[in-house]
Amino acid sequence: MRFLITAGPTREPIDPVRYLSNRSSGKMGYAIAEAAIEAGHEVILISGPVNVDRPRGAAVIPISTSDEMFRAVHQQVRNCDVLVMCAAVADYKPAKISKSKIKKRVENMSLELAPTRDILASLPKDRQYLVVGFAAETENVEANARKKLQEKNCDVVVANDVSRDDFGMESDKNEVTILFCDGEKKKISRAPKKIVARELVKYLKMFAENV
Ligand code: CTP
Q: Which residue in 32, 138, 181, 199 has the fewest CB atoms around it within 10 Å?
């Protein structure tokens, strides 16, 4: 199968030297890319700026902003069998990017933010590929993830508790619950992200073969 995987954070520029971003390390998305290659699948990886070694055998498309990720996903998605949206795409970007460096002043300052486009929600409902979203949650993890499964019209959502210190964001370990649109649910208990990724790829292949 052909996997299209997004990974890492996006950076939303404020001025030539500053940006808004998040703590995503890219480790989970890169581990999924590696696991998919190991299992004999083709992989295209659309990656935000990260410090992780490039998976051998994957075609990597580097992006920085949410708009660049939006365009790259739409360009590539028609040629894939499974899209895995593991990236932590920014929900907001500065309403205006300053061309020159914003100077320091003594008063408070505020930054006007505009919503970014939601990539998952922008995908057509009538499609030939499987869509897998990730839900990064700090409370009511499963209920919130189930809501995203429906509202973003995903086939599968991977519920990820990002409130913990012992797994999740930035960690080498993770623990996830996979929610399928047919009501099926699978939990992968705390393990190295490489192991979680292998299990996830196996479940996705099985699910894709049965839809
Ligand atoms: N996502 C996306 N486009 C965005 C923001 C998020 O496609 N502009 C995708 C992410 O890649 C992930 C899923 O939507 O697969 C859920 O992202 P998450 O950050 O958990 O949720 P949000 O949609 O941002 O909602 P909230 O922050 O309110 O939980």
A: 138
Ligand 1 atom closest to Cα of 115?
8
Residue 204 Cβ inside 6 Å of ligand 1? The answer reads no
CA distance 85 to 93: 19
Is the distance from the beta carbon of residue 119 to the nearest atom of ligand 1 less than 6 Å? Answer: yes
Number of H helices, E strands in the chain: 4, 12
CA–CA dist 181, 155 (Å, integer): 5
Q: Write the pLDDT tens digit of every residue in 117-127.
A: 999 999 999 99
Query: Global pTM?
Result: 0.97
Ligand 1 in reach of 133 Cβ (< 6 A): yes
pLDDT band at 210 (very low <50, low <70, confident <90, very high): confident
- Residue 50 beta carbon below 6 angstroms from any ligand 1 atom: no
Q: CA geometry: angle at 184 spanning 179 and 186, to 5°?
A: 60
Closest CA to 176 of 195, 196, 156, 192: 196
- Is residue 22 part of the annotated active site? The answer reads yes
- How many residues in total does the chain contain? 211
Cα distances from 147 to residues 181, 189, 206, in angstroms, run 11, 22, 23
Six-digit token pair at 23?
Answer: 């703590």
Q: What is the 118 CA–ligand 1 centroid distance (Å)?
A: 7
Nearest CA to ligand 1 atom 4: 118
